[in-house]
Each structure stands twice: as structure tokens, then as C-alpha cells.
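Forwarding the complex inputs:
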Amino acid sequence: MGVGLSHLSRVPARLALGFRMDLAFVLRSPALTIYYLAIDALLIPAVGGATFLLAERLAGIGPWSDWQVLFLLGYATTVEGILSAAFTYNVSHISRRIGRGQFDHLLVQPQPLWLTLVTEGFAPISGGAALVTGISIMAWAWTGLGLPLTIPWIAAFTVNLVSSVCVVLSTMFLWSVVAFWAPVAGEEISMNVHDALGSLGTFPLDGIGGAIGVGLVTVFPAGLVAWMPVRALVGVTTDPWGCLLTPAAAALIFTIAVPTFACGLRRYRQTGSSRYSTFGHRR
Amino acid sequence: MIGEPAVVLTGVWKSYRQRERGSTPSEVLARLVRPRFRTIDALRGIDLTIGRGEVVAVAGPNGAGKSTAVKLLSGLLAPDRGTVRALGCDPVRDRVRYVARTGVCFGQRTELWWDHPVASSFDWKRVVWNIDRQDYARSLAVLTEMLGLADIWRTPARELSLGQKMRADLALALLPEPELVLLDEPTLGLDVLAKRQVLEFCRTINEARGVTIIVTSHDLTDLEALASRIVMVHKGEVAFDGPFSGLRATPGTGRRLRLRTDGLRPVLSGARFLETRDGAHDYSYDPSVTSLPALLAEAEAQTAVLDVETHRPPIDDVIAGLYERWRAT
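Prediction (whole assembly, two chains):
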């Protein structure tokens, strides 16, 4: 089966459907939704609260000023916000679908799998709280930093932001492949990977050198969630190529993730969610 | 068989490899060093052809390979050997084109959106299956009337009863008006009324639109009224393929004889005693071996026979008898 790019024209209709369903879901109980969104808006940036408080207390962390740290936190929150608004739980945690034998439901849909994965998790309202908070924090930090709002900067910012989302999603999918072999364990691992990316992603990692430092931008790319791109965007580094590192790494991780996931998918074609696997599915 | 084949399975093998686990620490350690595997042959070179417009029941004991067969036909699994062709497609290679023309309903799982009203799942299906709005309205009107969806249309899926969920799932599978419908245990856990509704509906769409239906179920009494053909799978092979009447005629399935006597239970050499209930004694006998008059003469020689009933056994009993014989061999 080909990639099926002819299906691209169906993306808007699928996203509109996601919006409609999300709106209906949210409006079933407005009070509950406000409560839920408020908690989301508070808790997601709270992950980086300690980093920000340290930066405030010490007037910065290493080469980072407190405003730069705040921008870093806003950026990391925005990445998480995009994930929760555009790739909700069942897509970003695809291991859940695999681990529970629900992947079958994706395969009986008459559209390429990529189209399902790109559109099925679109929930911009219920998942949008972190996005709004992240953008607000970034905007606040941006005014404090006095960054120029030029077209090259906006372009660099947008490309890096999309790349960071791509890094997180690709990494999640890479680890989720484990679920094709060990369904339940794969689900747990994927959760922990997400948590670790989220918490480590809010730290300025300049002090970490050597193998761990390299590992954090390669094997376990928490440094690409916010640290590496924001360094270049807010001028912590003056390296002219700094803005290209995250997009390049994202392209590489994505290129590894796609065939790896396809390999897991081939395995699923052989075993499915039968009860005869060595490590069974959740039922 | 009606028309050209809807499904052709040729020499299909499907095996699973499962690691054997140890139950004691020493066994676990030993298996870490030297792992042991067992191979489960779910399907062993199955050949099967199903014509368009047929309703076929696939039955067999647990672990016989029924679900594997349905998954192969759904395009969820690829065969290890052999070929699967359905509606002229390879279900795995031509997945997108193929699943657009099939409807799949897994009785133990739901395709409904759990936190949304039933209506939202149908809207979702319309968009994802790219169903034209006019076709959608027509199909939905028919399904709503036949499966009584109106009363659950605004109810969130998580609040539906098992029967309501099954009705909604079935309607969802049939919304795009598929040519081939695969139903895996569609009556599981349903009450008598819900079961009847589901089966009636299947019969109607088969008769009205010539939809090919392949259904797996343990409720064979109900399926007998629906399916024209039954395929019995045992240990991954087709053990029987034909009409239900043919299954009843297999040696050893027998007929039932009920004798009401003045109290004494006659011992019949040509029949097997089953049970005594409410003063009536039930026997099973093979009419090809023993004639009914001979049995009655034998009974009357021992006691006064007040009433006689003979009937064919329920299909479930026939199947249970087959399973028992298979297990013994």
C-alpha cells in the first residue's frame, strides 16, 4: 500500500470533525470543562515551576537570564499544549491502542494510517488549556527579553516549535513500538518516556556535559523539547546554525521512527492482538 | 452457492509462537538461559469459498481458529502461508480499498466513541468513511427504523446496555452499506429479545441487499434460523462445511426419544439413557441403527408406556456432542 497522499484533501474535513466532536464533548458540562481546563492550565506549567523559582532566586541559571528561563518554560508548555490539542492521548500514547488490542479499530478505517494518526487526536478545545498558557508565558517572556519580532525570527521560532513537537511525537512512537512485542509493558514505558520528556524538557541543560549531555539530545532527546531550540531563539548561543539543530534532529528522529513503527506494524500483521502472544494485551 | 465468490481462502495457515514460562524460580531461570517456545497452529491449511449473498456461520470450540479466520478476512492479520481473497482484494495489501466495502463488528469490543452520544459516532463514521450525505441519510433512516436507534440516539455510549451497544455497533458497521459483513460473536451476552432483533436485522439486509454475512457465534440455535451454511472449525481445520441439516445427519448425532411410563424406567439396548425429568425418561438413539418401533416394543415389554415423543436434538446438543467426540479423539 502506498502512502496515499491523494487522501491529503480529506485532512480539513477530519479536523473539522475533531473540532465538532471536541466542542460537543466540552459543552456537555461547561462547569466541569472550565474546572478541567483550569487545572490543566495550572498543572502543566507547574512542571517547570521549580526551574523558574530557582532562576528567579538566583537571577538566572548559568548563562540563562530569568526571562530566558521563563521563555524556555513557555516554549516547553506550548510544545506540550500542541501535543494535547492536536495529538490527544490515544495518538501520542499510541502504545495504549496497541497494548489494549484496539489497534484493530484503526486498521478497519478506509484511510491510510498516517491520516488517522494525524487527525484522530485533534481536540483543540479540551486540550487547548496548556497551549494558551504556554503562549501566554512565552509572550510575557518575549516582552521582558525585548526580542525583535522579525520575519526570520518568527520563521525560526515556528520551524523549531514544529520540530520540537515532531521530536516528542517521534520519540513517543519509537518507544511505543515496544508495545507490538510486549503490549502492557510498552504502554507503561511510553507513559514514563512522556513524563521524563516533559519534566527534563523544562531544564536548561547547559551544565550537563559528556555522554549524558550528548545522550539528552540524541538517544533520549529531552534537550530538543525546549532547551536546544530556545538557546538559539533567545540568544543564549550565538551559533548561527543553532536554529537548524532541532529541525535537523527532528528530521532524523522522524526518519528513524517511521520505518521502526512500520516494522512493529508488520509484526502486528503477524500476531495481531491474539491471546497467544508471549506478553499479552490488556483486556 | 450464489454467484461469484465473495471470499476465497486457499491453503491458509496461521501459526502463533508463544514463549513457555516457568512457574518456579528455577524454571524461570532455566528458561531465561534456554527459552522454550510452543507453536499454536490456529489455522492449518484451510480452504474455503463463500459465495456472494451467502450467510455463513463459523463455529467451533474455543481456540478452534474462528477469530483468527475473521481477523484474516478483516485485513488485520496476514496469513503465514496460502492466500486470502475477499471481494477480489487482498485484505492486507489492498486494505484501504477493501475495508471501505466491508463492515466489521466485534461483539466484545465497541467502535462507538465512549464519551459521546451515539449520534456523534455516526457523524464520525460518515466523515471517515467519506459517505455522501444523501446516502448517509438514506442508510441511517433504514438502520434507525430496523434497529430502533431513535431511543438511544442521544445517549452516551458508556451508558448503553449491552444489547443497545450491540445494536448501535451493528448499525455503525452497516452504515456504509458494505458488501461483506463480518460479525464476531455479535450476540454475546445479549438477552433473547436483543438477540432476535440483531439476527432478524441480519436476515433482512441479506435478503434485501444480498449482503454476504460471515458470523461466528456460540449461539447456534439462533444462527440455524439465519445461516444457510455452517462451517465447523476444529483444531485449525474445517471439520464440517454444509447446511445445518447435514450437520444433524452426521453419524452419532441421533434423535431424542421421551417416554412417559407408569414409573419404571425401561432399559433400552438400542438407545442411550439421558435423564429422567418430571416422570419422563429421555433417551438418545441413532435412527440409522435402531428403529423407533423396535425401541417402543422393547420399552412396552418392560412397563406400560403412557406417552411417546420424538424430536431432533437442539443444534447446541449436536455441536456439544461433536465437541465431545473431537476432544476424545
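Residues 192-209 of chain B form the longest helix (18 residues).
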